[in-house]
Amino acid sequence: MNLSASLPLLVLALAIEAAFGYPSRFYAAIGHPVTWIGRWIGMLDRVLNREAASFATRKAMGALALALLLAVIIALSALAQRLCLSFGLLGLIPLALLASTLIAQRSLHEHVASVAEGLEREGLDGGRRAVAMIVGRNPQTLDEAGVARAAIESLAENFSDGIVAPAFWLGAGGLPGIAAYKAINTADSMIGHRTPRHLAFGWAAARLDDLVNLPASRLTALLLVASAALDRTADARNAWRAVRHDAGKHRSPNAGWPEAAMAGALGRRLAGPRVYGETRVEDHWMGDGRAEANATDIRRALRLYRRSCGLLWGLAALLAATAIL
Fold it and tell me: What pathway does this protein act in (predicted)?
């Protein structure tokens, strides 16, 4: 699929997902493409990740598992794309519907907004319950500011790998591009951890996920800086300053870019030391503002997020028009 087709597909898919999301009745009836991918990854993990094998063997088996996963995902998505496009331009509609299931604009907004609502309606306990649905850290260690920061950090990071990165790979490679990206990202979230079981087996997934998220993380930061310039309650200059000063200090090669941009725009500090389960992770702060945050700050972040999603759609539409003409 060339850019003159994949970019209009991206514009349509973004619009469909923003308007409708992934209906809960579909999820209840058939699950979600990411859950299907997750089952395949779990099966490959059980079959190929032998604890008795050497570190090098488990590392090789992890790379093999990832290659097998991608081969299946790309083949199936390419077949679906070819079938849809056999109907000509009308085929872009079902193809966009398929692609929209792999973008998460609407669901991300709903999950983060629920944290603000939990804090506003039920106080700290409500905020902790809501934020536990979207972050891996121990919510019982978080005060109100910690809950709010966790929600904002999740919004910034997931804007990159849940919306901008899938959009980038959809525009670059059509349905196979976005499907392959989601397979890599899901593999990283399931097996790309530094645990005894997955340190070797998940190495390939973690490294490839870092690579495929690199362009989108930078683009996400730029979108947030641009959105801050259009919002009188945000600070675009401070957002850009935080990106330049702090993004490279994050323990992740990609997460620091959107988190630093969001922190600077809001005049807050994000990331920093955190507790996952019983493990305390020491990380650099993103931004040089106040560490205190509350539900109002979450809603400010959501406003920047919505504006950034609009800018992403506008950029995709401009590129699509240019490719067509």
Answer: Cofactor biosynthesis; adenosylcobalamin biosynthesis
CA-wise closest residue to 103 among 318, 285, 283, 309: 309
Q: Are the C-beta atoms of residues 128 and 143 closer than 8 Å to each other?
A: no
| pTM assigned to the model | 0.94
pLDDT at 277 over 80: no
Query: Do the beta carbons of residue 139 and residue 147 sit within 8 Å?
Result: yes
Q: Hey, is 30 helix, strand or coil?
A: helix
> For residue 154, which of 182, 181, 188, 131 has the smallest C-alpha distance?
131
Cα distance between the two ends of the chain? 17
Beta bridge partners of 280: 275
Which of 261, 199, 271, 185 minimizes the C-alpha distance to 226? 261
Q: Supply angle C-alpha 175, 181, 184, rounded to 5.
A: 140
* Inter-residue contact 150 to 135 (CB < 8 Å): yes
3-state secondary structure of 63: helix
How do the domains of the chain map onto residue ranges?
A: 3-324
Distance of alpha carbon 25 from the chain centroid: 23
